[in-house]
Write a structure and sequence with these properties.
Oligomer: single chain
Distance between the termini: 11 Å
Structural class: alpha+beta
Radius of gyration: 19 Å
Number of helices: 6
CATH superfamily: DNA mismatch repair MutH/Restriction endonuclease, type II
CATH class: Alpha Beta
DNA sequence: GTTTGATCATTG
DNA sequence: CAATGATCAAAC
């Protein structure tokens, strides 16, 4: 796979959705090794100690504002960027992290004003071959998919979010497991299981508890990818 | 410690 | 063998 010079050096922030999508399409068919080399990045042996590497590489290729804090990757375009590891058949290999879950200060927050909805309003999915048996440098970038939840999908997300949020507000955060929710789930999001943050206990009292994050289940991601257009790595 | 980027790896 | 709970690294 060598189609000459195409994407060199970190990109500037795209000024329009068209420009962003054009760049995204230009990545299709390149290997992660080629993209990394073009940027002068080393390729790690595997992702065990570099779990966010692919996402950061794609960010740099598309000109996302790196390391930014709470909002979307392209605030001016209203677009959140997500790389999604899949098999050549289009099956997601991992759940998708959405954002941290607020455990306090939830009074007055609704689905409409939630971080989850804000992040998922418009997502640019970059499919990447994520098979572990495939050497990292040889993994192919696939087609980009710009997605906005259908009314049905949003209703599912909203229902999951409301169920989880209500449990958090009522002090049942430690009883919520990854099994809750159809599309959205709540799971640990921390350096390790000893990390603690502030939460609310059963009697409304402050407690120390494991930080959690919202994740999209693979079944939901797979459905949305296939609805958008039959996904393939190449 | 928190939030970004996620994948790892044990368990059912 | 998928899914849940655990974990890794960087920026701040």
């Amino acid at each position: 796979m060598n189609r000459g010079i195409a994407l060199k050096q970190p990109q500037q922030i795209p000024h329009s959705l068209d420009e962003l999508m054009q760049r995204a399409h230009q990545l299709t068919g390149y290997t992660l090794g080629e993209l990394a080399t073009n940027l002068g990045w080393p390729v790690p042996k595997d992702l065990r100690s570099a779990k966010g590497w692919t996402g950061q590489l794609i960010e740099a290729c598309l000109g996302a504002s790196a390391g930014s804090k709470p909002e979307q990757d392209f605030p001016e375009l209203g677009v959140e960027l997500k790389t999604i590891p899949i098999t050549p058949e289009g099956k997601p290999l991992e759940t998708t992290y959405v954002c941290i879950a607020p455990l306090t200060g939830l009074n007055g927050v609704t689905w409409e004003t939630s971080n989850v909805r804000n992040k998922l309003q418009r997502v640019l999915w970059i499919t990447v071959d994520g098979r572990r048996e495939q050497p990292l440098a040889e993994r192919l970038v696939g087609v980009p998919i710009l997605w906005t939840p259908t009314p049905e999908q949003e209703a599912t997300l909203k229902a999951d979010w409301e169920e989880i949020t209500e449990a958090i507000v009522l002090g049942r955060v430690e009883q919520i497991t990854g099994r809750h929710g159809i599309a959205l789930q709540l799971r640990p999001k921390a350096a390790n299981s000893r990390v603690e943050t502030q939460g609310v206990g059963p009697d409304g009292q402050p407690i120390r508890t494991l930080p959690r994050g919202y994740y999209l289940k693979t079944s939901f991601t797979q459905a949305l990818l296939h609805e958008a257009i039959g996904v393939r790595v190449e």
